[in-house]
Design brief:
316 residues; 16 helices
Length: 316
């Protein structure tokens, strides 16, 4: 379904390879979650073995997409894709009329322009972050999370990702709210990137989009992002709530670390040992080959209730 027409030294078939690798990475993440859940019922010796296996998995997962010989720091094929394909689409001239856009599409380009200069520059800001900074951050993540052989340090790893990935990206997004919601869904409704027709997927895409309740999805996007983009302590300025959310993610990492420590009790609020059955159920849902969104959400709510609520609250 993907055109194999060459563009310079880059073959568009590599797009398929890139997204296939991405899907495999996401599959590894779900497997990792299931392994974490399973480890909650392991003995300490087995847990130590898992920690060592975790090292290998992370090194293979992150290491396989990195290459310090390229400008971006990613493996050669993806680096070429970033430089020869994505930059032109995402870093458009906001003063010029869009007549052709391979990936972002002119409808999407115009949707961001309509939201003002700040929002118009957002796609390029995300691209530059991906190209110039992300690989180095992943290198630091890999070094810190595996600083001591056989010992996981998720707290440190998530702190790096929170401070250096989540916070910068949320800063870009929040400076474009609420325009980002309208622009994003205009992109989805009217997407006209050249790659769509070149791949022969144009008609199918329009059928699928026509079946979606995009208004409700836009409201959900706003509901998910708005808490992160609120002014910190209710005071307008440069500080947003996402800075505090980043610290919450770090706490989650510390709780995961504590889950593997033998001296942390099964009723401790600082670990997930007390929610092992709910955690395992959620992990299995995520790892299912036939993912059911409704069941996943129901399982997640049950997990959150057990983590956050007393027994009476969990029944409501």
């Amino acid at each position: 379904l993907v055109s194999t027409q060459s563009t310079g030294s880059f073959n568009k078939l590599s797009i398929l390879t890139t997204f296939t690798k991405f899907n495999l990475r996401m599959r590894l993440v779900s497997c990792l979650l299931l392994a974490l859940c399973s480890s909650l019922v392991l003995g300490q010796e087995d847990t130590d073995d898992f920690a060592l296996g975790f090292e290998v998995m992370v090194m293979e997962w992150v290491g396989s997409i990195l290459d310090n010989s390229t400008e971006s720091g990613f493996y050669t094929e993806f680096d070429s894709y970033l430089t020869t394909e994505l930059e032109q689409s995402f870093c458009f001239d906001i003063a010029e009329e869009c007549t052709d856009s391979e990936y972002l599409g002119c409808a999407c380009t115009n949707a961001f322009k309509e939201q003002g200069d700040t929002c118009a520059k957002m796609p390029c800001a995300v691209y530059k972050f991906l190209y110039k900074e992300l690989a180095d951050i992943l290198v630091d993540f890999l070094a810190d999370i595996l600083a001591e052989q056989g010992t996981m340090n998720l707290e440190q790893g998530i702190e790096i990702l929170g401070s250096n990935v989540y916070v910068p990206l949320m800063s870009i997004f929040c400076n474009c709210t609420p325009g980002i919601y309208e622009a994003t869904f205009q992109c989805i409704r009217n997407y006209d990137g050249d790659i769509l027709e070149e791949s022969g997927m144009g008609a199918m895409y329009r059928v699928i989009v026509g079946m979606l309740d995009l208004d409700s999805m836009q409201n959900i996007m706003a509901a998910l992002l708005e808490p992160h983009c609120q002014p910190a302590d209710g005071v307008d300025g440069e500080n947003f709530c996402f800075d505090k959310f980043a610290k919450m993610f770090t706490t989650w990492g510390a709780m995961m670390d504590n889950t593997f420590k033998p001296f942390v009790g099964t009723k401790s609020c600082d670990a997930f040992k007390r929610v092992k059955s709910e955690f395992m159920r959620f992990g299995k849902m995520m790892d299912s080959p036939n993912m059911n969104v409704k069941k996943i959400l129901k399982s997640y709510v049950a997990l959150e209730k057990k983590i956050m609520c007393n027994s009476k609250c969990q029944e409501t």
